[in-house]
């Protein structure tokens, strides 16, 4: 899915880019000084100067990910978040330039944004998938003709070897990246008023099946109530508390209530179930349909 910024947003992005490019570059000693002021004293002016000087790095990195169809402004914003995280964690004592350190945070923030928004289906949930997502197109263009419908077996094998991933991961990512998200409301053709959702089968029961099911359920409930009415009070108690509630009573619990052993309760339950089955069979034309062996 490609995003197109409106003219006002495009002008705002251009103004931001021009302003970022006018920011002066920092020397090594100056950026170390600013980093220490922010870390040790919470000097926000030092933080702002440090961050503003490297927004050009954010913009440069964002241009590398614009081919994924996401707004340039959003990429820059995500990169600025990474830049702020880098400023919060930068340690000048390690004698590494801030630009080198910040580039990793900026790239990571943008990659996470791309993976979250490139498709409604979550992409790149593992390190192997993430590596494939951002390198598959480049390696495919280098190995084979990018206009071909799909990679050859040898091409997939070379990519799997170079990125140190499984062959099945290459095949899966190639398939996922070959198509884009499509709305079910999209017409199937430019000249057609039918949309893709018009051809989705309805998996719900038909009105006839609903009515038949309701009628059958009423019949079964009536047969069961009549059959239970033929049991003795003790058998009814056992069936109701053991079989007709979600959290049925145990044999031991019923044994204490009835003053008998749990083995006797089991025998009474078995006899009651046999009576129920026989009673219901007398009421049904085809009893075999009600009692299916598990």
Molecular structure report:
The protein has 294 residues and is an all-alpha fold. It has three domains: 1-118, Up-down Bundle (Four Helix Bundle (Hemerythrin (Met), subunit A)); 124-180, no CATH class; 207-289, Orthogonal Bundle (Arc Repressor Mutant, subunit A), CATH 1.10.10. It is 64% helix and 0% strand. The chain contains 13 helices and no strands. It has helices spanning 7-22, 28-41, 44-52, 55-63, 72-89, 98-117, 127-143, 153-163, 167-177, 207-229, 233-243, 251-258, 262-283. It starts with 6 loop residues before the first helix and ends in an 11-residue tail after the last helix. The model has no long low-confidence stretch (mean pLDDT 80).
Q: Which labels suit this protein?
A:
mainly alpha, single chain, elongated, 13 helices, Arc Repressor Mutant, subunit A, Four Helix Bundle (Hemerythrin (Met), subunit A)
What structural class is derived from the secondary structure elements?
mainly alpha
Q: How many helices?
A: 13
CATH class of the largest domain: Mainly Alpha
Sheet bearing the most strands, described? none
Q: Roughly how much helix do the residues carry, as a percent range?
A: 55-70%
Low-confidence stretches: none
The count of β-strands is: 0
Task: Please report which band the strand proportion falls in: under 5%, 5-15%, 15-25%, 25-35%, 35-45% or over 45%.
Answer: under 5%
Corresponding CATH architecture of the largest domain:
Up-down Bundle
For the termini, the CA-CA separation is 50 Å
Q: In terms of quaternary structure, what is this?
A: single chain
What is the N-to-C succession of helices and strands? HHHHHHHHHHHHH
* Mean pLDDT across every amino acid position: 80
Radius of gyration: 35 Å
Instruction: Classify the fold: give the CATH topology of the largest domain.
Output: Four Helix Bundle (Hemerythrin (Met), subunit A)
Shape: elongated
Number of domains: 3
